[in-house]
Amino acid sequence: MKPSPYTSSFQKLRSNILLVFVSALLYACNSSRVPPKPNVQITLVPASNPGGPVQLDFIGGRANGAKPGEQIVLYARSGIWWIQPFANQPFTKIQPDSTWRNSTHLGTDYAAILVEPGFHPATKVTTLPAEGNGVVAIATSTGKPLAQIVSKVIHFSGYDWRVRNAASDRGGQPNSYDPSNVWTDKNGYLHLRMEEHDGLWTCAEVSLTRSLGYGSYIFVVQDTGHFGPSAALGLYTNDDFRTDNIPGELDIELSRWGIADSKNAQYVVQPFYVPENVSRFTAPAGVLAHMLRWEAGRASFKTVRGSGIGPGAATISEHIFTSGVPTPAKETVHMGLYSYRLTKASSQQPIEVVIEKFEFLP
Question: What are 286-320's pLDDT values in tens digits?
């Protein structure tokens, strides 16, 4: 029997009503589901080592459910939490596959924080921020229980010096350091060198293994007249592990800071951005002796020709600071050759400096 057109129309209407009902039911089910909360994970955990600023390793993980523009902020704990890898590079990008990876200075614990665009992280904190106010998710991990990394130590002028093997942002940009750029020759002189290793421009730095405190610090340095505009030699005292915001650094710095016709030397009581804390001068070619006399409330600097500070030495420059002079804590002497705003032109030729002697007089 042939169905009537009314029966066919009713069947189509019933099918359409059923389809709309099922669709509405599915939509209601889906809309009732709460989207998963974004989270961050640390899957590549560095070693537990409070070596802090002198050693680096890699850290990595995943950021699930991150929105476009969100990034990772890393911290490592060495006494307090320090932003990683550098204060001027506080963000780690999330890759299209949700993974992230960066370098970090070593600490006892590590934190990865997923943050919204426009978030401004602190460079160091005693307590990690809580979720909210731009913080989307937080992950922490204790460092892996591995043996402490043994640093290269070199003997110079009767003292032991630790050779830097981690990157640093001294000079306003990340600089890599290679221990092979540091050595002593048959005369006992210390050599610091900047050059390219496997396509990477590397610097050199040593720091004394113990603190000396108040007294006279004398550095005898051979000619630095060959320095390009971006090369910088820092002779200074500083506590790498200081956890407060009080500057504790006294500097003798030989550099033109990227300006070819600028004066090439200065004495500094940090912070450098206070005009009264800097005394600029021109250091001539040849061997020079630089001295810092550090006393309570007083830092006296002097540079003379030749290898000795004495009554007959020709004075090149001298300056006395009586404001902002730090008190001794756990500071150590550093001698570092690095680059300030490195350019391709300045990286074409290796640069080397020879330090004949370091002397400390209480």
Answer: 999 999 999 999 999 999 999 988 888 899 999 99
- % pLDDT > 90, the chain: 63
Break the chain into its structural domains and give their ranges.
39-142, 153-361
249 close to 237: Cβ distance less than 8 angstroms:
yes
Decide: 205 and 338 in contact? Cβ < 8 Å: yes
The fold of the 153-361 domain, in CATH, is: Jelly Rolls (2.60.120)
User: Alpha helix (H) ranges present in the chain?
Assistant: 5-31
- Classified by CATH at the fold level, domain 39-142 comes out as Immunoglobulin-like (2.60.40)
Rounded-to-integer distance, Cα 228 and Cα 258, Å: 8
Q: How many CB atoms lie within 10 A of CB 126?
A: 10
User: Quick one: DSSP state of residue 48?
Assistant: B
On whether the CB atoms of residues 57 and 106 are closer than 8 A, the answer is yes
- The encoded tokens of residue 212 equal 């000396």
pTM above 0.85, yes or no: no
